[in-house]
Amino acid sequence: MHRVAQRVGFLGPKVSVEKAHAVLLALLTPALDAEGLFNFHKHNYWHGQQICFFLKPNCPRCPLKGFCSYYEEHFGPATPGALAATPAAWDEAAWGKLPH
Ligand code: SF4
User: Fold this and answer.
1) Could you give the CA distance from residue 34 to residue 61 in angstroms, rounded to a whole number?
2) FRET label pair with 44: which of 7, 8, 68, 84, CA 20 to 30 Å apart?
3) Domain ranges in the chain?
4) Residue to probe by mutation, ligand 1, list 10, 40, 51, most atoms within 8 Å of CB
5) In CATH terms, is domain 2-90 a member of 1.10.1670.10?
């Protein structure tokens, strides 16, 4: 959760794990209700488990590459070709299953 939020740019590089919860809550509560916050957490967690791996994130297949700070830093701005290479449909073989 913390790793993905930092890579995408929701959290600054110096925001600690301990402070991340308060920062994200302040960022998201104007837009999301309790269920939305829970879903954000669940999907962000899943994203870190299935795509945005600790050692080698699977950026070429990632649907967030268009606005991800890490992607831009390592690959440059997402080109139309790179965005088009993102699977448009659910790809269970590559992405696994959403945890319950
Ligand atoms: S583009 Fe890469 S670093 Fe950014 S969220 Fe996706 S997998 Fe993670």
Assistant:
1) 29
2) 84
3) 2-90
4) 51
5) yes
Q: The pTM is what?
A: 0.83
Burial class (CB in 10 A: 0-12, 13-18, 19+), 74: exposed
pLDDT of residue 100: 45
Report CA(66)–ligand 1 centroid distance (Å): 9
Q: How confident is the model over 29-75, as pLDDT tens digits?
A: 989 999 999 999 998 998 998 899 999 999 988 989 999 999 999 99
Q: Which atom of ligand 1 is nearest to the CA of 70?
A: 3
Q: What percent of the chain has pLDDT over 70?
A: 87
- Contacts of residue 95, Cβ cutoff 8 Å, sequence gap at least 6: 50, 51, 61, 87
